[in-house]
Amino acid sequence: MEVLIMNIQQILNDSLNISYENFNDYLNQYDLSPEEKVAAFTFYHENVKQKKAITISAEKTNNYKSIADKVEYVHLFPKNLKKIIKEYNLTSNELLVTMEILDSMMSHGNMLINFSQARLCELTEINKSTMSKVFKSLRAKKVLIENENGNLYINSVVFMKGLPHKLFIQYREHFLKSIEYKLTEEENFDQVFDAEFIKTYESNIKKIKDKKEELEQKKKDKTLKSFNETLKTELKEATEENFDLIFDEQN
Q1: Of 141, 233, 246, which is closest to residue 187 (Cα–Cα)?
Q2: Sequence-ordered alpha helix ranges (H) in 6-127
Q3: Can you give the pTM of this predicted structure?
Q4: Closest alpha carbon to 15 in 55, 58, 32
Q5: HSE-up (13 A, CA, CB side) for residue 23
Q6: Do 154 and 145 contact (CB within 8 A), yes or no?
Q7: Which residue in 72, 83, 12, 63 sits closest to 42, CA to CA?
Q8: What span, in angstroms and rounded, lies between the C-alpha atoms of 141 and 168?
């Protein structure tokens, strides 16, 4: 094997570009004393770690977002929107109100928050009478869904805010309530959520709710037990005090 002659400083600098597996072969190219080899190994291990740390830090620093902060956006299922347009058409007022809701009044899980028709009238410059008709029409056209508790949702098979599997637990039940596949008596929307996923989703929510109820019940039981123990102790103390008082009076 040919032995190369090179300045030790240059050898050390170049070694940072060598992989750990090839480092020993790299050093054997040069006529280095045992002390120089030890120094080279020490330099390599210390500086390679530092180099990696610097690289990782740079990656974290350049953590750009693809969408700017405070920009609202939703997922759109175009086939289902086309079905609404073909079946019912959507007026300019209905589109304007729908877009305003998506922009400023819909939370993750598709529930309407901070919502009022009066506020929508201000934002869209649509009068109260017309707004009432628009809402009635959007319900009939299955853009808006109202559940048994009176909560309003944008139908998530048309527009969806957030991804179901990434929603916080407080939004997941709302997401399930915002699904409406029935467009008319004769026609349904296209299925956009996997049936097995929804089944598992519902099961997981139930398990979480059951566990939460179980923990709350344990907390109540623990509180009640603590209360009963405290009450028992106080009754015992009160009984002993009264007994001592009676005994003193008899003497």
Answers
A1: 141
A2: 8-15, 23-28, 34-61, 78-87, 92-104, 117-124
A3: 0.62
A4: 32
A5: 17
A6: yes
A7: 12
A8: 29
Element holding 161 (H helix, E strand): none
The b-or-e profile of 69-97 (16+ CB within 10 A means b, else e) is eeeeebeebeebbebbeeebebeebbebb
Residue 77 to residue 178: CA distance in whole angstroms: 14
DSSP 53: H
Give residue-wise pLDDT tens across range 122-174: 999 999 999 999 999 999 999 999 988 889 999 999 999 999 988 988 899 99
pLDDT (tens digit per residue) in 28-46: 887 777 677 777 777 777 7
Q: From CA 146, how far away is CA 107, in angstroms rounded?
A: 15
